[in-house]
């Protein structure tokens, strides 16, 4: 297992061990927090013990992964945890975390049982996550217990500290051991590369011995062939000379040793090798091309270097051969080599059985000691060594590799690669992890035990404080903790008891103050709610805080909808078009008053009088603003009515006074004939009658509108009253007008005051006459209503009619469809309001339909005789408080 996988396994097992240990501590300390019955607590305790035991055995490396000693307690522990969680207290969050942790741990065990080789990372990660999930379940289950939370927190703290220290320490120690092992292997590689020099020294000695034997010989059988090879190698004598030299080399090789390889390279001829060499022709070519041989021939001096000759790695040496003839003659060089083969490396590696050696370049391994493996890694390392890019060493699978160059002068020719197993590092790491786990185990047990004791001591006092606080919250202000201790909890308990006493006295004061404030607030709210003017208050941020009923009616906005909203959502426009809500968002210290216009949500503009001021806080600061808005529509309407009344009354009085005054003046200043005087007097009487009618209309309207007249209703035949109206108006109307009466068959009598019903019908007939200037028939009709309890009296004309835009004004007091001073038709504008009051007093309704240019139909609906059985009922006329009811139509044909 690699170092990373070992550290991950250590972290996983230690995390799982602490999580299981903390779970057992929680179940043991506060059983009421996690399980409701005894068997669930026993199952949870046994499950946590099983997980802790398995984690200890594997984490301390006492048992291997997948062994029965580890798998059995872990599987049984998981099963017991799941069984015990079924009887756990109702805490879905903690239970779900526990199930998630058990599921992850089960996945890890299935991977182990299926064969964990190559899955160490997955197994370790699943165990770490599973342990974390179990820790989350414990945190959720212990959130209501101080001792349990302290124990869980201590376990978490120990986990973090020990893991950090252990992983760091193990990493440092293992790295140091690994670096030391790599350094040792690297030193061995450099030493073995140096030992190749010994082989080169041996080859050099052999070459010198052979050269000396050849150059110092006095035997013509030896020197003669050498001279022939150097001077005439191609002649028949040269061929015989090569055979003679080869025989001499064979004898020298036998003397020097069986492993020696000797060759003679003449100055201008072919290389001669000893007959024991295989593939002599190829060997001759390679020796002749060897840089070592070429340099020796050129420089006529000795050369020593490692080389690859004939596909084999060798330590080669070359020595010059010169004969002492009458004059010195350089005839060639002797080539000698020591083989760097498997046997050589086996002999070198026998000193340390754990170390294996190999000679290679970047393309081929030339020799190796037994047990050496990993050809690709060796070739890569050898190539880096020869290129000068290799480091101090590297780790390949379960072995350390290091290489050193074998030099020919300053030029690297071969790389000597050393291999050593990593078992030392693995043993050191396992021993370290075992020791760390045992130390961490002891520290964790001690820390959790101390944390549980401290937590229980703190928790007992806190539970007393909690119980006392619960009693105080329930209303028992006389409850006291009674903690007599010298530590902070004792001070807290004393302060808590003193606070309880203060609460008792403060509660009594607050109750008295609250009662006074409630009474004052009730009076203020009653005053504000009963105000006829709209009142609105805002806080310092410009949000509406108070909004009384008059304000709701004025703005047509419900108080709950606007309370808490920004005051800018309401439209209050000043006389110059400015937004007056700015004065509320930034209240002035001095009070202010102005006229304004409120724009309702449907666009209706309401004139108001606004008065505002600032609201001060407890420290005298500006804490908001308040404004009172008075609806000016009634005042404006009264002012308009007064203006229109004065305009109409002056017009109506001047019209009859003008002929009276004119004719009276004529009668005073001129002499008139009797007919003229009679005619003037008649016109004066007509004017006086008009004045009398105007005054009577005002008096009658004032009397009826004030509710001072008591009606005496009686059954009145409809035909008789309509015929009386017809007869009365037939004498008043000009020849261009006429009155017709039509009563439907079966129309019952009406219950009405005869006098006031006549006055109402007279007003309607007068309006019909006035608005039919070109003449025409005025129809008086009657018929039973659809419900059979009322009678409909209708007055219709074929006059100018009423424009659609003027229908709303015809029922207003002193209002007419055309209210200008140049209107074509006179009158005070009290006709229809007067009729409306009378009909309302009778319990009836009044409706008007009209079409411009086609005429107007006025329908009066009053109770029939059948309503009260014909009894006379006294009724007082009521003053109108709202606008009259009416129906309008601009396309209905006149009936």
Quick rundown:
By secondary structure, the chain is of the alpha+beta class. It is 54% helix and 19% strand.
Explain what the structure shows:
By secondary structure, the chain is α+β, with helices and mostly antiparallel strands. It has 23 helices and 25 strands. Strands 12-11-16-15-14-13 form a 6-stranded antiparallel β-sheet. Strands 2-1-5-4-3 form a 5-stranded antiparallel β-sheet, sandwiched between helices. Strands 7-6-10-9-8 form a 5-stranded antiparallel β-sheet. A hairpin with a 5-residue loop joins strand 15 and strand 16 (622-631). The longest helix is centred in the first third of the chain and has 70 residues, at 146-215. The protein is elongated. 37% of the residues are buried.
What labels would you give this structure?
895 residues, 19% strand, 6-stranded antiparallel sheet, disordered C terminus, 23 helices, alpha+beta, 5-stranded antiparallel sheet
List the helices and strands and how they pair.
Layout: H1 3-29, H2 31-34, H3 38-59, H4 68-85, H5 92-115, H6 120-141, H7 146-215, H8 220-231, H9 236-256, E1 261-266, E2 272-273, H10 280-289, H11 291-299, E3 303-309, E4 312-324, E5 328-339, H12 342-349, E6 356-360, E7 365-368, H13 375-387, E8 394-396, E9 399-408, E10 411-421, H14 423-473, H15 488-529, E11 534-539, E12 544-547, H16 549-555, H17 559-562, E13 572-573, H18 581-585, E14 592-599, E15 605-616, E16 622-631, H19 633-669, H20 674-705, E17 710-712, E18 714-716, H21 718-730, E19 737-743, E20 750-752, H22 754-770, E21 776-784, E22 790-796, H23 831-841, E23 845-851, E24 855-863, E25 874-876
Parallel strand pairs: 19-21
Antiparallel strand pairs: 1-2, 1-5, 3-4, 4-5, 6-7, 6-10, 8-9, 9-10, 11-12, 11-16, 13-14, 14-15, 15-16, 17-25, 18-20, 21-22, 22-24, 23-24
Helix pairs in contact: 1-3, 1-6, 1-7, 1-14, 3-4, 4-5, 5-6, 7-14, 8-9, 14-15, 19-20, 20-23, 22-23
């Amino acid at each position: 297992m690699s170092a990373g996988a070992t550290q991950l396994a250590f972290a996983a097992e230690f995390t799982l061990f602490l999580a299981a240990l903390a779970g057992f501590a929680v179940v043991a300390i506060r059983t009421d927090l996690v399980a409701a019955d005894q068997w669930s607590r026993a199952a949870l305790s046994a499950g946590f013990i099983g997980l802790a035991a398995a984690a200890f055995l594997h984490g301390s490396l006492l048992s291997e992964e997948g062994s029965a000693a580890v798998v059995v307690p872990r599987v049984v522990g998981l099963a017991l945890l799941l069984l015990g969680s079924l009887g756990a207290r109702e805490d879905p969050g903690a239970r779900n975390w526990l199930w998630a942790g058990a599921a992850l741990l089960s996945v890890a065990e299935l991977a182990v049982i299926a064969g964990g080789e190559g899955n160490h990372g997955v197994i370790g990660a699943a165990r770490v996550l599973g342990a974390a999930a179990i820790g989350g379940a414990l945190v959720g289950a212990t959130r209501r217990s101080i001792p349990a939370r302290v124990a869980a927190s201590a376990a978490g703290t120990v986990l973090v500290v020990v893991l950090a220290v252990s992983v760091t320490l193990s990493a440092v120690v293992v790295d140091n051991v690994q670096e030391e092992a790599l350094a040792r292997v690297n030193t061995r590689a450099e030493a073995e590369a140096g030992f190749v020099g010994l082989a080169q020294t041996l080859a050099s000695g052999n070459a010198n011995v052979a050269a000396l034997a050849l150059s110092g010989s006095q035997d013509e059988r030896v020197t003669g062939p050498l001279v022939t090879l150097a001077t005439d190698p191609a002649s028949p004598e040269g061929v015989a000379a090569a055979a003679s030299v080869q025989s001499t080399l064979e004898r020298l090789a036998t003397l020097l040793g069986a492993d020696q390889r000797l060759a003679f390279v003449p100055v201008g001829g072919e290389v001669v090798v000893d007959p024991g060499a295989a593939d002599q022709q190829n060997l001759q070519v390679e020796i002749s091309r060897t840089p070592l041989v070429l340099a020796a021939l050129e420089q006529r001096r000795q050369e020593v270097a490692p080389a690859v000759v004939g596909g084999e790695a060798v330590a080669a040496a070359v020595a010059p051969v010169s004969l002492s003839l009458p004059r010195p003659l350089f005839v060639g060089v002797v080539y000698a080599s020591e083989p760097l083969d498997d046997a050589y490396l086996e002999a070198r590696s026998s000193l340390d059985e754990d170390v294996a050696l190999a000679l290679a370049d970047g393309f081929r391994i030339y020799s190796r000691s037994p047990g050496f493996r990993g050809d690709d890694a060796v070739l890569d390392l050898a190539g880096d060594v020869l290129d000068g890019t290799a480091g101090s060493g590297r780790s390949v699978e379960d072995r350390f590799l290091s290489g050193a160059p074998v030099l020919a002068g300053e030029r690297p020719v071969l790389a000597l690669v050393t291999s050593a197993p990593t078992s030392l590092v693995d043993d050191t790491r396992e021993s370290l992890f075992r020791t760390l786990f045992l130390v961490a185990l002891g520290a964790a047990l001690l820390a959790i035990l101390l944390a549980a004791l401290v937590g229980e001591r703190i928790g007992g006092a806190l539970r007393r404080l909690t119980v006392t606080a619960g009693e105080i919250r329930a209303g028992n202000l006389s409850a006291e903790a009674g903690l007599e201790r010298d530590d902070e909890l004792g001070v807290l308990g004393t302060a808590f008891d003193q606070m309880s006493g203060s609460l008792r006295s403060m509660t009594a004061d607050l109750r008295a103050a609250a009662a006074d404030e409630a009474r004052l607030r009730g009076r203020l709210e009653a005053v504000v709610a009963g105000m006829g003017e709209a009142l609105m208050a805002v806080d310092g941020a410009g949000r509406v805080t108070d909004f009384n009923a008059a304000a709701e009616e004025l703005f047509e906005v419900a108080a709950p909808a606007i309370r808490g909203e920004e005051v800018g959502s309401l439209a209050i426009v000043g006389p110059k078009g400015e937004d007056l809500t700015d004065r509320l968002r930034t209240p002035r210290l001095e009070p202010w008053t102005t006229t304004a216009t409120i724009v309702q949500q449907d666009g209706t503009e309401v004139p108001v009088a606004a008065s505002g001021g600032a609201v001060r806080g407890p420290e005298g600061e500006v804490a908001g603003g308040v404004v009172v808005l008075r609806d000016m529509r009634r005042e404006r309407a009264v002012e308009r009515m007064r203006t229109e009344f004065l305009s109409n009354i002056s017009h109506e009085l001047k019209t009859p006074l003008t002929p009276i005054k004119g004719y009276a003046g004529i009668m005073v200043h001129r002499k008139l004939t009797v007919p003229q005087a009679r005619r003037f007097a008649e016109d004066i009487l007509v004017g006086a009658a008009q004045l009398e009618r105007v005054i009577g209309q005002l008096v009658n309207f004032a009397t009826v509108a004030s509710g001072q007249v008591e009606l005496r209703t009686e059954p009145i035949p409809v035909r008789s009253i309509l015929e009386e109206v017809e007869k009365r108006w037939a004498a008043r109307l000009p020849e261009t007008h006429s009155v017709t009466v039509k009563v439907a068959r079966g129309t019952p009598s009406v219950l009405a005051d005869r006098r006031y019903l006549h006055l109402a019908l007279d007003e309607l007939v007068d309006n019909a006459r006035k608005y039919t200037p070109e003449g025409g028939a005025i129809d008086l009709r009657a018929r039973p209503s659809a419900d059979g309890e009322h009678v409909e009296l209708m007055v219709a004309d074929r006059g100018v009619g009423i424009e659609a835009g003027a229908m709303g004004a015809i029922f207003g007091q002193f209002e007419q469809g055309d209210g200008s001073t140049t209107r074509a038709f006179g009158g005070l504008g009290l006709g229809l309001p007067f009729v409306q009051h009378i009909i309302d007093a009778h319990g009836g309704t009044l409706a008007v339909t009209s079409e411009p240019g086609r005429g107007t139909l006025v329908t009066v609906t009053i109770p029939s005789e059948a309503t009260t059985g014909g009894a006379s009922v006294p009724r007082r006329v009521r003053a109108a408080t709202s606008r009259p009811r009416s129906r309008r139509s601009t396309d209905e044909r006149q009936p």
